[in-house]
Amino acid sequence: MQLGIIGCGNMGGGMVAHLIARGIGVTCFDPNAENSQKMANLGANLAESGADLADCCDVILLSLPKAAVVDAVMREMLEHIKAGTIVLDTSTSEPGTSQAMSALGAEYGFAFLDGPVSGGPVAARAGTMTMLLGGDLDAIARLRPILDVLTAKTVTVGGSGAGHAAKIANNLLCAANLVLVAEAVRMGQAAGVRPEDLLEGINAGSGRSGVSEVNFPKWVLNEAFDSGFTMGLMRKDVKLALDLANRSGVKLDGFEPIADIWLNRSTNVPDADDFNAIVNHTQSED
C-alpha cells in the first residue's frame, strides 16, 4: 500500500511519526509549511497538493479540522483518486459528509470510510488510539494492516456516517462528564472531602467515567491542562451534537444546559486553552 496522510497537525502528525517509526513510508500534504517541514524532518515524503498525493497513493488518511474542510479536500482530489483507493477520514466530521463522500466513491470507484479517533496526540504518536469505523466492511478488512499499526482498538459501528455519529455521541458524553465531575468535586470539597479521595470513591462505584478515571488525574488535579485537545475543538463538537440531534429530531433536555456552559457561559476560558480547562468555569461561581 502507498500510504498518504492529509493534515499533519497534532493528530495527523502523530500518526505520521508512529508509522515512520514502524518502518512504514508515508507521503504527506499539509498547507501549513511548518507542519510540512516537521513531517519532512521525520522522513516523510511531501506532496505539493492533495491532488498530487492522490496521484501516488492508494490509501489516503484525512486528519482535518471539520466537515467543510473534508468536503473541500475531497472535491479537490476527486479526479485524481485512483480506482480501488481507500480514503479513511479520521477527523471528527459529520455523518452526512461521510455519506456524501461515500456516494462519490461509489461513482468514482474508491471506498470512503469514516474512522474518527479518540486518545489525543499522545495516543496518535504511540499507536494506541481507539477508532470508530463506519463504511464498507470489505474496505475495512483491506485496511486492517494499517489499522492494527495505528490503533489499540477499533469498533465497527455501522455503515457510512455511523463512525462520525458515534464519535459525536462519545464527545457529547465527555463534554457533559467534564462539567459534572467538576461540580461533584466542588461539592465534595465543600463537604470536606479531598478531590483525590472523592475520585477514588467515585471510580470504585457506578458514577465513574473516562473523565473521572483519566482526565482528572492526568490533566486537571495537577493543573497540567496539556492533553493536546483544545476548548475550541470541543466547542465545535458540542455544536455538532446539537446539530445532529436537531436534524434527527431528538431533544437533548439533559445536555442542552451543559452545551450552554460550553458555548455561552465559559467565555473566561479561551478557545486556545486545553479542553479540560472547562473546570475553571465550573469550579467558580457564576
What is the fold named in CATH at topology level of the largest domain? Answer: Rossmann fold
Average predicted local confidence, pLDDT: 96
- CA-to-CA gap between the ends? 54 Å
Sheet with most strands: 6 strands, parallel
User: Counting H and I runs of at least 4 residues, what is the number of helices?
Assistant: 13
Give the low-confidence spans: none
Give the name of the CATH architecture of the largest domain: 3-Layer(aba) Sandwich
Provide the number of structural domains. 2
Shape call: globular
User: How much of the residues is beta strand, in percent?
Assistant: 5-15%
SSE order: EHEHEHEHEHEEHEHEHHHHHH
Q: Given this structure, which CATH class of the largest domain is correct?
A: Alpha Beta
The total count of strands amounts to: 9
Keywords:
286 residues, globular, 6-stranded parallel beta sheet, 3-stranded mixed beta sheet, 13 helices
Verbal overview:
It is a single chain. This protein is an alpha/beta fold. The protein has helices spanning 10-21, 33-42, 50-56, 67-77, 95-108, 120-126, 137-150, 162-190, 195-203, 210-220, 231-248, 255-263, 279-282; strands at residues 3-6, 27-29, 45-46, 59-62, 86-89, 111-114, 117-118, 129-134, 151-158. Helix 1 runs parallel beside helix 2, helix 8 packs across helix 12 (255-263) and helix 11 runs antiparallel to helix 12 (255-263). The radius of gyration is 20 Å and the shape is globular. The mean pLDDT is 96.
